[in-house]
Amino acid sequence: MEPLISINNLTKRFGSEKVFEGFKLEIFRDEILVIMGASGSGKSTLLNLIAELDHDYEGEIWRSTDISEGVSIPYPMVFQESESLLPWLNVIENIRLVAPGLTGDQIISLLKEVEMADDSHKYPRELSGGMKQRVGIARALACRSRILLMDEPFASLDEELRLKLQDLIRAIKVRDALTVIFVTHDQSEAERLGDRIIKL
Amino acid sequence: MLKKPVVYRLFFISILIIIWELAAHFGPYPDALFPSLVAVVKRLGMLVMEEALLLKALNSISIVLIGMIISALIALTLSLLGIYLPFIKENTKLLNSVASPLPGIALLPIVILWLGLTSKAMMLIMVHAMLWPMVTTLTLALERVHFKYLRLIKVFKIPFWRRISTIYLPGIINDVFAGFEIAWSRGWRTLLSVEMIFGIVGSHSGLGWLIYERRMYMDTAGMLAGLIAIAVCGVLFESVLFKAKRWEVFIGTTNLH
Asked: Which among B132, B142, B182 has a CA at the least distance from the CA of B164?
């Protein structure tokens, strides 16, 4: 099976410190790949490299042309809650910020997918942590990409909420045939969510 | 029912008034040097009725406001460019560290030599007084907002102008007001000093000149009335413009920081 993304002999340094050396990884279509590791192990760095946010590396990162075909934002990401939504924009405006071409109805239908349609005019300060992350997911889905990157999105949420959102991600992945790359440091979250887990 | 802080203030002011009046009536100074508050209030009323005081206050405030707007625009431009152009960032820092400690009044002799006693010279001094605190405040604020939302900007490829209008400007609005507040206090003090030296620029003069002019007529009550007017303008300006908390609620940025 041809991978969607293939990383070969990746070396990444921060100053004199090597985070990756000769690192290899293949990411396949329609899978949930969970990247696990302790703080400072390079999880977010790897996500940034995959998302083309960081071009300062040695080695090769090959990406299938399918990823960027017909989409303007090929690597949408769901962040941790603290860097997630702009507090001065309401839910609809936060989504429209990244997808200005979407109509109000299209945004509402996206919000329905994450059960947030009733809160579309609320500001982030009026939302709970779980609700903010649902909006973050809807915002990433608004890009209509084939890939979804998630950087410890549920780290600050309680267990019950995490389970609900993990189920939501699974359902969306199956329905939209998405490839999800999910970063976490939580073993149980990785086992529950991942089709495949790699440890850094 | 009056709140406690208001009662404390009224009590303190009443004590000051009593002390002043006792000193004026029973102190060793003649009325011309140490007038009673009644005389000062009468003089204040006369100056207001003659429109001299209000016109001079408006003139002074308008100069500070114009200087503040020019300073804010320059500071915003430098701070925004500094995010993307290291050359601008480093040289703005350098200029700020060199120019910020220089009080505007210290530049006055050289500015008068170059530009004369003109409104341009006065505005240059005002901009110098207000620009650097605004540069410091806005640069720090923009850097904070930029780095907080850097991944959002990069991941979702938010175009430059939308970044400015939707992320940077709303993100720093409270800091703009904080910058205005610092700039105002520096600018207001500088202006009053400069007005005393410049006197009348064009056909206008301000509160600083009013005090200076009253001194020439040995009008102590007039000078004190001018000082009261300066204090009242300062308090009014701050209470009207710098209630940043209200803006915070208004634009919904309470959980920005």
From this structure: B142
Best CA proximity match to B57, nearest among B176, B235, B247, B180: B235
* B156 with A75: Cβ contact below 8 A: no
Of A83, A87, A125, Cβ closest to residue B151: A83
* Alpha carbon A72 to its chain's center: 16
With beta carbons less than 8 A apart as the criterion, state whether B168 and B145 touch. Answer: yes
Report the side by side order of strands in the sheet with A77-78. Answer: A77-78, A147-151, A179-184, A32-36, A196-199
Which of A193, A183, A67, A81 shows the shortest CA–CA distance to A136?
A: A81
ipTM summary value: 0.88
The domain made up of B52-256 has a fold known as: MetI-like fold (1.10.3720)
d(CA B88, CA B80): 10
Question: CB of B152 within 8 Å of any CB in chain A?
Answer: yes
| Chain A positions in Cβ-Cβ contact with residue B157 (cut-off 8 Å) | 72-73
Facing residue for A75 by CB, picked from B155, B251, B253: B155
A137-183 pLDDT per residue, tens = 999 999 989 999 999 888 878 888 888 888 888 888 888 889 999 99
Count helices and strands (H / E) in chain B: 12, 0
Q: For residues B114 and A124, what is the distance between their CA atoms, to the nearest angstrom?
A: 54
The set of residues, in sequence order, having a beta carbon less than 8 Å from that of B196 and lying 6+ positions away, is B208, B209, B211, B212
CA atoms of B155 and A140, how far apart (whole Å): 10
B151–A125 CB contact, under 8 Å? no
Tell me the shortest Cα–Cα distance from A125 to chain B, in angstroms. Answer: 7
Give the chain B residue nearest A45 (alpha carbons).
B151
Tell me whether B3 touches chain A (CB under 8 Å).
no
- Side-by-side strand order, sheet with A17-27: A17-27, A5-14, A58-63
pTM for the full model?
0.78
Q: Tokens 């604020």 correspond to what residue?
A: B141
- Please judge whether B166 and A97 are an interchain contact, meaning their C-beta atoms are less than 8 angstroms apart: yes
